[in-house]
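forwarding from the other thread:

> can someone predict this with zinc ion?

sure thing
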Amino acid sequence: MSLRDLPKLELHLHLEGAAPPSLIRGMAKEKSVDISRVFCEDGSYDFRDFVHFLSVYEAATSVLKSPEDYARLMTAVLEESASHGVIYTEFFVSPDFCGGSDVTAWREYLHAMEEAATRAEAQLGIASRGIVTCIRHFGPDKAKPTALCAAETAGGWITGFGMGGDESVGHQGDYAYSFDMAREAGLRLTTHAGEWGGPTSVREALDDLKVERLGHGVQVIQDLALVDRLIEEDIVLGVYPKWDRHPIQALRERGVKVTVSTDDPPFFHTTMTREYEQLARVFGWRASDFHEISQTALDAAFCDADTKARLADKLKDHPQ
Ligand SMILES: [Zn+2]
């Protein structure tokens, strides 16, 4: 079994966070912007801790300035994902970085991204959708115009709304207004919770934002009543398994629905193939385990029934 060839679905990928360093370096050179400080000697992204990661991330993405830049980024990321057997990707996309959450500017960026995504689907067979994402550490007031961008462009490629950024800032509920606006526009909801924040952050996400999927969520393992609630309410976790003693297996064995993603792959020196290799090595996962998490991801995907049926056929086609 080639883990690279297994068909994969990825539900937790930040578009800018997936930017290949070579693309960002090339764009910086074209624009004569000096961002050499964000790279290590080996050419990869360089950061010390989560807060530094956010600042390197923002510096790296500062070279992405136009709809055309985002089209190039989308193409490069989808090519990379397709080369690892990914058949469906949900991107976190941020109007804050695409025209400062101005609806007219956002429409132009989105149009360029969507064109690139459509082209990649036709050429490489990789489908995708976008989840408009507000940035938690920018504060609740900044989230409102972002939610408006989401509501105004809901339907079609944009199918979800979510929140990323620094989990230590404020509370999930501070952003309820924006999540309500997105829900009323028909968008499906997710947020980052329980990665750095503990079980409280997960409980707040469920109670105050009423999300149906959680990015990370692994800290719930500290609170078994909360684990049971995730099972009861059919909440799906999009997990990036960073450590050998990662709770992904314990959560899965207990009955929580988990899916595997790479989050910001070049920043964490990973790919979907590498995550699969780790899961096979550390937990002994086999093709049937990977098939099960793909099925979970398919069920939890924020896309329409026709797309799901096509993806289901691709999963079925692959020998176990
Ligand atoms: Zn994330």
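The chain has a mean pLDDT of 93. thats all i got for now
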